[in-house]
Structures are given as structure tokens and as C-alpha cells.
Task: structure prediction
Amino acid sequence: MTWFGPSRDGRSADARGALVRVLSTDHARTAGAGVYLSGRRLLTCAHVVNVALGLRSLSPHDPGKVALDVAFPVLSAVGARRARLVAWIPPRSHQYGPVADGSLEWDGDLAVLELDEEPPPPVGPVRWLEMERGQQVRAWYGGGQPFSYADVRVGAYDGGIGYLDGHLSGAAVDDGYSGGMLWSVADGAAVGLVMGRITAPDEPLSAQHTVRRSWGLGWQSVLRELSQAGAVPEPYLVDLRARSVSVSAEDESVRDMMVGPLHTLLGDPTARAAHATALATELGLRAPVDGTAPTVEELARLLVGTERALPTLTESLAPTVDDPRGRTELDRLLALGRLTETARLLSVAEHRVLLGKLEHLAQHDPGLLPRAATAALPYTDLPQSLQAARLAPHAVPAVLRELESWYGDGSPVPDETPRLPALLRVVEYVAAETGGLACRVLQEWSGRVAARLGIHASALRERRADAARWSERATVTGARVLVELDRYAKDPAGHYRCSVWRLRGDGTAARAVTESDRPRTGREIARLVREVAGGAEGAQDGVALIAVSVPPDALELSVDEWDGASADEYIPAPLGEDFHLVLRCPKLRRRSRTGAGDLNRRWNARNESDTLHADHRTGGRAGLIGLLKTTHRDTARVLLHGSAEHRGELLPVCLVMGVPIVLWDRGASGPGDGTRLAELVPEGPVDGLPERVRHFRVRAYADGAAAVRPTLVWEDTELPLPDELQLADPSDGTEQAI
Result:
């Protein structure tokens, strides 16, 4: 192509903005270079990591989850940043053995690092292309100095390795260049990584010696190594995959068939120049400013060979098409795009907007996208990532890419118009479940995409109505039972007196068991609770909620493990497996004059506030008080980490200051044990937490070796405390004590 050229903006033309400097552990020197991929991921050589750690350069041994100091020397004024090693592809010989010292070349030798925080905003991913013989490429020293560039030529490309020859002037590829990108200035893209150099022997230099020859790994080889090792997950590759410069015979046929519709739609050179310029801008390419237009054949070539080019072009074309023939030709163009791998469903702008929205939603509600996709596509085999209960934000790009490939949802459409793509149906369900302004934004987005694709408005309205009905589904509410435990000084150890109430649908309560009876064992209390729950209003509607009020010194009590099964029952029945067993501690709550107001404020903000992780870094009791008074004033969820002693210091603070939801592991003995509750998704949908805890308990109790014991304080403001209950009038029919 000649009309469309590589972008000449400062970042892509120089490429040093994506250059990474890998520092030695003592910060005394530059160990090597690297390149920014996407998200928080960086790519470098494994031997650069070894050098940074002071190990043997070509050692194949995985150093483990080490952290290195890295920097973006060109686009960031901040010094070193921490990055953890997350993937290791060791240096290896061609025979898959260790690499001997003094070897001239080897295979493997890649490492992926992950930053502890997001990179500075100016840093962005570079464009990648496959390495080819004859390319003029440039490399930089890891320090990023402008004068450190070394210009070399790919003299040969053999077996995935590119041999690089440099001129006898200027800088040469040397120590500190390894792991950096090989940048093709002409293509405006990176084509590989610097790996090593082939040096002359230690003897007087002669005309027979190899001079200034280095070598690098071509991008196609890098991509293959990463993919085979599973080292870089799909989210970080979807926007980096290179398209081969060669075009298959099938793509050539598609390209030829596109020429006709393009002539009809863009036969006017002025219109073609305007749309082609807008297309080049979106794709990050360079367009002439002399008013000329690309040929139709050149435009068709770009549409076939460049990802998202076709939907991006139709995005600007669709609003200008105002006659049936034009719409027919536009539909034909879109249909031809489905025969290629590069077209994709969404334009560059559409993809960018949706990706940002879904990543934001996944961060605040990891279960939203899997939940919506399951409901929107009930008869489709969803990708593995959508079959799980949660979806991390970094996994959204891969899921979005897969959903794009499903073009029809299978439902009828009017007048043989295009079917609604599966992705748009999922977006409608996400929007309906989200509600508010986010819902309107997503619905407007899907409306614009549907109009561009020529989808009949009634088809979109029908799917939107389906989504609304699904989002308004009634939540099944089971029985609600309140239990109050207490004990007297003379009561036997392990025995408690209990009062039990059944809650009616109108919020009134009927006493079932009084504390004036006698002290009981945990098994006896569990049997009482089971019988009361079975006779409570709503007992057949869902899982019952059992809210147990305990004294302050009983918050570590294993009430959820009390087994209420009778002697003749075959299956054990711990309360935590059969019910939403949660704890409450009203006596601690009353030790604050503002406790009631704090509880209401935090409970009402439970769906908007983030989870606070209280661990050894919180600063103890005083530090937690400070957080809950300032930056986390409306926080409704706290996840406690650490030993029983540490929890005993922090838990009362949470309850006195009105935190309604507190989760911890009774079996934890140190700070690191808190991660064992990650499966519960503490940051996930709030109202589903008791059910997730119940599922977790079922699995934990079944595994005799599992020491994880989740405990959940759940102070629902709609559940009255024992001294606030409206007891039943005896004349209306009393509840007998059991």
C-alpha cells in the first residue's frame, strides 16, 4: 500500500515510549531492556532477569515470584517501579537442554513481568509485525538515551532467529540492549526482541572475523513461545497479534468481491478520501494531506488485511447511506467481512468504549458479565471464563473478543434483516442488570451499533424487553429466624441459653424458644433452629436466613458447624451448610452513640462502597479507626486478615463503628491466610455473599484437610434486634416453646 502509511506521531515513530529499563537489584546498573505489552504486563528476556538478580546469565532455573525494579525512562519522570515475575520461559539449547556458557544462540529466553500498579498514562502498547529478511530495524539501550540507538539490518531470518548486521559507524548492539524491541522505522512497528550478539574471538581482529553481528527473536517466534507456554493470556495478545503481510487465496477472493460494493458506496473520490482519512486516523495510520484518495482496490486491500478496518469504515459510512440500494451494498460489504478473520464485529471506537465500560463494571461486580451472558445466551456454550462465578477486569478483552465472533442469537428477525449479534444481546442484559445512567449509556451504544449493522429496530426492542424482564426477576426469599445466645457464669462450658424467633413477612416476630429454659449444647440448639426454620413463614421459598446474636466474647464461636441432624439421619446437617448462617453482636453496636446512624448509612451504601481489607498494614486499632472515619466512612464491607489475636483487636472496631458486613477466616493464623477466602469474591455482589459463604462451607466441611472456616457478620437493618422485636399477641395464637 502507498496511500495508507504508518503513523508518524511521536510515540509510534520513536517507540522509545514503550521501552522498559530493567535495573539490577542494587540499582547500580541497567541489567537490560524490555517492552511494554498491555495492561500491567511487560516483556523482556529471561537472561535479563538473571542478570538483574545477579545470577548466571543463561541459567534455566525459574527464580520464582521475584520482584524487580523497572522504569519507563522516556515517558515517565517517576523512578523505579516494582514488577513481579509472572511467566518464565528459560533459555534452552536447540536440543531442549541447558545453554552452555559462550553459546552464540539459543531458544526460549523470555520473561513476562507484571507491574504492581498501572503504568503512567503516556505509556501505551506498540504495533507489532512479523520479522522479515531485509528490514531496517533500530534498537535502544535499556536506559533509553536518544543517542543509544543502534541501526541494523535483518540480513537473514532462519528458524525464528533474525541475524542483524550493523554498520561500522554509530552505536552497536551491546550489553543492556537485550530484551528491548527491534523497531522497524519504515513500518512503524516492532518486529522482534534483541537477544544477543555474536562477538569476535579474543585475538587480534582480522578481515575474516564477524563484526557487529547480533541476533534477535522475530515477533512471530516470540508470540509462538508465549502462546505455547501459556505465558501471556489472551487479554494481552488480542491487540498485539500481527497480521502476516501475505494474503491467502481466500482473502484475495474476498478482497476482489469487496471492490464492487466499494465502487457503489465510495465511487466519488472526494467522499472516498474523506472516509479513508477518517479510517486511517482511527487505525493509527498516516494519510496524505494533499486531498488525493486511495484507489478502491487499495482500500479493499486494507479492509481485508487490517483488524477492525471494515467495521470502522462502515461506522462512518452508515449515516450517509439513505437509499435502499446503498444499504444493500453496505450489508453485502459487512457480510463479506465475516469471511475474514480481521474484520471483527466492532469498530475501533465501538470496541474501545465497550471495553472500558465492561472492565469498569467487572471491577465493581465481577459476577455481572458471567451472570448476564448466561441469561442472554442460555443455549450457547459460553467460554470457560464466562462459566465461572466471577470475571476479573483483565480477562474482559479475551471474553469480548470471543463474543464478537458469534454473529447471530438465533431469534427470529423481521423482513430478513440481520440477526442481532450475540454480543449485543449480552450488552442489553448487562445494561438491564446495571440500571441507572450506566444502563442508558450501554443501551445507546448498542442502539448505534445495531443501526450501523442494519438490524431492525423491533429486534433490538424485543431483546431489550427480554433483558428487562430478566433483571426484574423476583429474588426468592426464604424463612428468617433470629437467635439470641447468652450464657451465665455457672453454666457448663460449651452450653448456651437461647431465644429463637420466627419473623413473619410483615416484620413481626413470634417467639419460639425462650432463654428461661436451660443451657443447651450446640447440637441441641442446632436441632431447635432447624425445627423453627422449618415451620417459619417462607420455609419452602428458598434458603432460610439464621441471624445469631452473640455476646462480644463469642464472635469466634463455630455456630455454623453445629450439627442439627438427629441420631437416625444419614446425612450430617451443620447449620452453615443448610442455612445462611450469619452472626450479629448488638451489645458492641450499642457502645457507640452514633452506632445506629452509622449502621444505616453504611448499609445503604453497601452496593457502591468497596471492600476494605484490614490486615497487618492497617496500623492496628488506631489505624482502622482512622480509615473508617475518613476515606472509608461509608464502607459497608470489611475483610479481616490475620490471627485470632489480631482479629480480636480489629473486629470490635468494625462493629462499634457500624460496619454491617464483616468477613474473616476463623482458621487463619497469620496475615497470608486471608487469601484463602478469595473464592468467596468479597468484592462481588453484596446480596449474594451469604449464599457464596454457604457454598464455600459445604466444600470446606467436605474436605477434612481444609482448615478454612469463614465467619460472616451480617447486620441487615431490616432485621430487628431481639429487644426491638414486635412480639405476637398471645390471644392471636401462641408459639409453644420447644
In short: Confidence is low (pLDDT under 50) at residues 8-13, 205-210, 238-247, 726-738. The first helix runs from residue 10 to 14.
